[in-house]
């Protein structure tokens, strides 16, 4: 009987711990920005709230997948922030706070500045494409997704 009681208490404690860890991990993730389609050896710079993410980097979309491999992910827990910047060549992590919402994103493509205020209420997974209005002037589009993004 005592063994059953210990087993039940152990299962309950483990379940509570897992639930708490899941809540903490969920609270850390703030947003994810990916440069997506319509880039063809374009020179791109990016910054959020005056924090430089990318500087004058040549970006090209994969012709089949439509992705560039450039990804910015921001995590936050209490007052500490961590920014992960991924390109085709490397991943860099910076311990830095971007401040609070609203997050102001500036992306420059071929000397054309694009300004966006991130609307995290629309979704935390964000795709930025270089298709613009089709004129090739460097204008970009932003799309928000709440769940997993499926590329087809």
How are the secondary structure elements laid out?
Elements (H helix, E strand, L loop, with lengths): L1 H27 E7 L6 E7 L2 E9 L11 E7 L2 E7 L4 E5 L8 E6 L2 E6 L7 E5 L11 E5 L7
Parallel strand pairs: 1-9
Antiparallel strand pairs: 1-4, 2-3, 2-7, 4-5, 5-6, 7-8, 9-10
Short description:
The protein has 152 residues and is an alpha+beta fold.
Account of the protein in words:
There is one protein chain. The protein has one helix spanning about 1-30, and strands at about 30-35, 40-50, 50-60, 70-75, 80-85, 90-95, 105-110, 110-115, 125-130, 140-145. The chain is globular. The longest helix has 27 residues, at about 1-30. It has one domain (about 30-145). It starts with a helix and ends in a 7-residue tail after the last strand. It contains one helix and ten strands. It has about 150 residues and is α+β, with helices and mostly antiparallel strands.
């Amino acid at each position: 009987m005592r063994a059953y009681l210990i087993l039940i208490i152990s299962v309950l404690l483990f379940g509570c711990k897992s639930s708490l860890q899941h809540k903490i991990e969920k609270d850390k993730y703030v947003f994810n920005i990916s440069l997506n389609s319509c880039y063809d050896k374009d020179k791109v710079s990016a910054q959020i709230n005056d924090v430089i993410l990318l500087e004058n980097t040549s970006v090209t979309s994969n012709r089949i997948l439509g992705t560039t491999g450039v990804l910015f992910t921001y995590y936050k827990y209490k007052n500490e922030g961590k920014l992960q910047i991924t390109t085709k060549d490397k991943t860099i992590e910076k311990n830095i706070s971007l401040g609070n919402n609203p997050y102001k994103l500036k992306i420059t493509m071929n000397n054309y500045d694009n300004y966006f205020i991130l609307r995290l209420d629309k979704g935390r997974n964000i795709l930025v494409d270089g298709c613009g209005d089709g004129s090739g002037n460097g204008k970009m589009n932003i799309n928000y997704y709440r769940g997993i993004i499926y590329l087809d």
